[in-house]
Amino acid sequence: MNTSQFPAELRDELDAGLAALGLDPALASPLLAYLALLDRWNRTYNLTAIRDPREMVAKHLLDSLAMHPHVDAIAAAGGSLADLGTGPGLPGIPVALVRPDVEVTLVESNGKKARFLREAVRQLGLKDVRVAESRIEAVDEPGAFDAITARALATLPLILELGGHLLKPDGVLLAMKGVYPADEIAALPADWELAASHPLRVPGVDAERHLIVVGRTTPANL
Fold first, then answer.
1. pLDDT in tens, 198-221
2. Which pTM does this prediction carry?
3. Torsion angle, CA of 37/131/99/168, rounded to 10 degrees?
4. DSSP string of 63-83, one letter each residue
């Protein structure tokens, strides 16, 4: 895919961000191919409110990739991840590009965004990524996933209400949040509990970011 429309500084910022996150610099090329496709579709279909590709590097690509170390165990086991309300594929597509051993399902109910996702999966050659054009609560795959993730979607209790049924008994929610969501954690349903909280450092983003890991208090009978 042609990425020549991007200024050299954009590639430099992505390279620096990948280095800061401990990721292979070779990942820059497929990530830029995804960004080019997103930029082109966004001009017509308004897939994301961020219009500047340079801003997308930090606030979309690097922000999504900051969670990558916490997907390693899933990748090592050849596990599965559902990205709920993924929009234009964030964080699911960047995660799939850097962790190809993870089977990723992109859940999105908006038709134009789902069409973009299918085209991105095709053009990027993401063989272990599929698109579920559906409301989260209507995805009929109970207990199918090792993890679910969501970025700027909803509160922790609501994410679990909508998508908790998708998790295996020992599966976890990997929720990407800004400031530490103490009130949301305190409001978790009785059968769910905080398993871990990880502050995230996102290159180029001067704001608090946290990955909140939530699991069941006892294994569910699915």
1. 999 999 999 999 999 999 997 554
2. 0.94
3. 160
4. HHHTTGGGGHHHHHTT-EEEE
